Amino acid sequence: MKVEKRFLKVYVCSLSAIIKSAPISRYLFELKEDDGACKKAQQTGAFYLFHNLAPLLQKSEHQYLAPQYSLLELERLLGKFGQDSKILEDSVLIGCSEQQEAWFALDLGLNSSSSINASLQKAEMETALQGSFIKLTKALFELNVKDASLLSTAQALLRWHDAHQFCSRSGQPTKKNVSGSKRVCPSNNIIYYPQVAPVVITLVSDGTRCLLVRQSSFPKGMYSALAGFCDIGESLEETVRREIAEEVGLEVDRLHYSASQHWPFPNSTLMIACHATVKPGQTELQVNLRELEAAAWFSRDEVATVLRRNNPSNQQQSGAVPFWLPPKLAIAHQLIKEWVEKPTCSPLPA
């Protein structure tokens, strides 16, 4: 059956692509918990801008760059367009540099509970900032790792705050803290934290081949690993076994954990990557066509050939390759590459 999205509360949105030292993590924790410290950090921090959840980007050769703005630059820009600087209260903390320069994100197109002004017009902003507000789904794979991680975190937080401005118990407006790490209902002191949906993404193998699948929503010719949301009450292992049984009718023999990644789509997920093996004699597929468009076994050589292509999507469209794989930034790509390069992985504890 089709799995509905389930949400798991977390206190901290992680920047999966940026390794933080202990001092940086402690500093970020201080900013999230101390409104005064966070306001002070805004004075010397840098801001990434969005408009209706689309980040401001500038094209540079074959990739997009995400420009940063100081608080002073932002205040001047808002003044130029007759906007009150109160909109800065809607910014959210998304990370910091090794030198403890705090990074924030601000959406200039969303009308939040703390903003008293109408949102700025997109075209006017793009002209003034010499950039374009581009949907993250379109731009993500043309960003460097740092910007992709920061903008993914930023969009997830901005979307969550936009959708949780009222208390589900009292119906009264909630108020976010300065960093945006939580919202509080003043009428009953209920605290709401940003949420993420746990998803398992699993590459199934029979030892010499791996199973790749297509959903109808995928770009033409792209195949990936199996993925599905965790059900309430399930362990990760149980989710992997259920998803594989539901979607392709296979029974898991062994299971190995690989890695995890925050993913901003559709509404902020934690992708938990695993390898699963099935017995060689039990590989006949029973594809659930309500969930998948296609599923097939591919040899290690076939997959390795596609991985070596510089731009497999373009070559697939021209007929040069039979299929293509998710871009390098996606954990599905790393999972498939790991299988090609490292045939064996360490199993999960029993």
Textual characterization of the structure:
The chain has 350 residues and is of the alpha+beta class. Helices cover 29% and strands 24% of the residues. The protein contains 10 helices and 17 strands. Strands 1, 12, 13, 14, 15, 16 and 17 form a 7-stranded mixed β-sheet that branches. Strands 2, 3, 4, 5, 6, 7 and 8 form a 7-stranded mixed β-sheet that branches. Helix 1 (22-33) packs across helix 2 (35-44) and helix 8 packs across helix 10. It starts with 7 loop residues before the first strand and ends in a 9-residue tail after the last helix.
Biggest sheet character? 7 strands, mixed
Radius of gyration based on Cα positions: 22 Å
What's the average pLDDT?
A: 86
Structural class: alpha+beta
Order of helices and strands: EHHEEEEHEEHEHHEEEEEEHEEEHHH
Q: Terminal Cα separation, in Å?
A: 28 Å
Oligomer state equals single chain
How many H/I helical runs? 10
Report strand %: 15-25%
Shape: globular
The helicity comes to: 25-40%
Number of strands: 17
Low-confidence blocks of residues:
1-20, 113-118, 345-350
